[in-house]
Automatic annotation (TrEMBL):
One Pfam family named in its UniProt record: Cytidylate_kin
Name of the protein this chain belongs to: Cytidylate kinase
InterPro entries: Cytidylate_kin, Cytidylate_kinase_dom, P-loop_NTPase
Domain of life, source organism: Bacteria
Family of the protein in this entry: Belongs to the cytidylate kinase family. Type 1 subfamily.
Amino acid sequence: MRFTVAIDGPAAAGKGTISRAVAAHFRFAHLDTGLLYRAVGAKVAEGADPVAAAEGLDLSDLARGDLRSAEAGQAASRVAALPEVRAALVAFQRSFARREGGAVLDGRDIGTVICPEAEVKLFVTASDAERARRRWLELAARGGAQSEAEILADLRERDRRDREREAAPLRPAPDALLLDTTELTIDAAVNKAIEAIELRQAQGRE
Ligand code: CDP
Ligand code: CDP
């Protein structure tokens, strides 16, 4: 059985949280594609050539250092604007998306570029203030010292760069379901995603 769930949206909207819960619920594999760009960004910050870093990426790179930091996010969004870097990461993501047993991928271009044939596409959003508040809570719990205002500025800068780039800009696929999580609890957001997938699975059986 091949079944792909594509989850895209701006920073800290809840993509990863929803993806992990959906993957556990349906026993699908999950790939956080942001981690690929964060790992390339971290290698470039250490002096590597961006394209060589992307071409040579391996699993151990995804476990390195603090890839969740705001600095790693900024480094990721800069290398993510380079078409050659994106091209080097396409084949791995596509084969993950179409693997046997179902897959959930979250990122910016999953429904538009990586897997336009995905059975379910969600575009997850939340207000800027709510996203900054969530990321602040998350980073503060891990000892981060950034203020909410600094995090808001960081998310906005990254979103702008992601939306305005020529290569695979952040935007909803025409057939994506928009899921605004501003007023939703995590459980409510996850349930909406599960419902959309169950609906599509039922259609597939008709
Ligand atoms: O993957 P993405 O950057 O889109 O977001 P995330 O890491 O899944 O979510 C960012 C933070 O918001 C996490 O700490 C989640 O627990 C939290 N969250 C929330 O409070 N309410 C939601 N409906 C979804 C996520
Ligand atoms: O968790 P958060 O939403 O803050 O970021 P992320 O998903 O880890 O992505 C970090 C950066 O990688 C983004 O700002 C994008 O520039 C880039 N990215 C991308 O271009 N395409 C993807 N499929 C995933 C991430």
